[in-house]
Design goal:
Blueprint lengths: L1 H8 L6 E2 L12 E7 L7 E6 L3 E2 L10 E4 L6 H8 L7 E5 L7 H4 L7 E5 L2 E6 L2 E6 L2 E5 L7 H12 L3 E4 L3 H22 L2 H6 L1 H20 L17 H14 L1 H6 L6 H21 L4 H6 L7
Parallel strand pairs: 1-4, 2-9, 5-6, 6-7, 10-11
Antiparallel strand pairs: 2-3, 7-10, 8-9
Helix pairs in contact: 5-7, 5-10, 7-8
Amino acid sequence: MIYGWALSAAGVDVTHFVRKGKQAQFKDGVTLDLLDERKGHPQKNIARYALKCVEAVTPSDGYELIIVPTNAQQTEDALKMLVPVSGQATFLIFSSNWDGVAFIDQLLPRDRYLMGYPDGGGTIREGVYWTNLGGEVHLGEVDGQPAAKLEKVKALFARADIKPDVQGNILHWLWVHNAGVIGFAAGFAKRRDMQAYLKDGALLRECILSTKELYELCRLRGVDLKQYPEVGYMNLPVWLVMLLLRWNFRRNESMQRFTAHAASQGSLQETKAHYVSMMKTASELGFDMPHTQALGTYLQDV
C-alpha cells in the first residue's frame, strides 16, 4: 500500500490487485498515517490515497512491472496465479527468502524477475494504515549481473525519492536479513506483546544467542558475513545487545511501526515457516543450534 501511494504520488500509473470481493472496500480510498523517512519529504504525514484496484488481471492489461509483496509462504501461490496472466511483465518479488529460487525458476525465466525487500511496514489501526516508509529499497538480480530491467526498476523508485540499494548477491542479503529477524520473532511468539517481550530478560538473551547461531548458519551456507557490517553488533556482549535492542524498540518510532504487525497470524506463520526451513538447513549442515531449537517451543501453536 505505501509503495503504491509513493509511486502514484510521483506520477506512476499504479494498480492494486486485490482478492475477490475486496475491491468495494477501497472505493473511497484509504488513510495513511505515515512516518516518511525519504529526504525532502515531511516526516509525519496523514495522507488520503485514492487507490485504483482490480480483482482480475489479464495479459491484455499490458502491465510493465508486477510487485509481489507477500509473506514468504504465500509467494509461490501468488506467482502461480499471476504469471499465466502477466503477459511479458517484469516481476519484483518483495518477499523474504530462505529456500532459494528453484520454485521461482520453474515459473519464470530469470530475465523476467528481480528479488527485493521493502524498507517499510506497519499495521492497520482502526481502519488507518499506521506505517513507515523507509528512504531506500533493497534490490538485486539473482545472478548478480546488472540488466536493463534492474535499471528500469531503480529509476522507478528513484522517481519517488526512494534510494535503490542494489545488492551484488540479493539471496545472501535476504538470508542474512532472515537470520537477523527469525530468532527475535520466534521469541516474540511467546509473549505476543512488545512491552512484555522487552521486559523478559531471559527470553531476550535466548533470542540474541539464537541470532548468533543463525548468522553462523549463514556463514556455513556460504555467506561472507564481512560483506554485511550490520551484523557486527552481535559481536558485542549480550547485556549490551539487550540494552541496545530495548532502547531501539522503545525510542525508535520507525522500528515500532515496522514491527507493529509482528503479532498478526500471517507474520507468526511466516516466522514458523522460516524457522522450520532454517532448522532443516542446520540439520543438513550438521550444525547444532540449541538456542534456536529452544525457541521453537513458542511456535508450536501457531
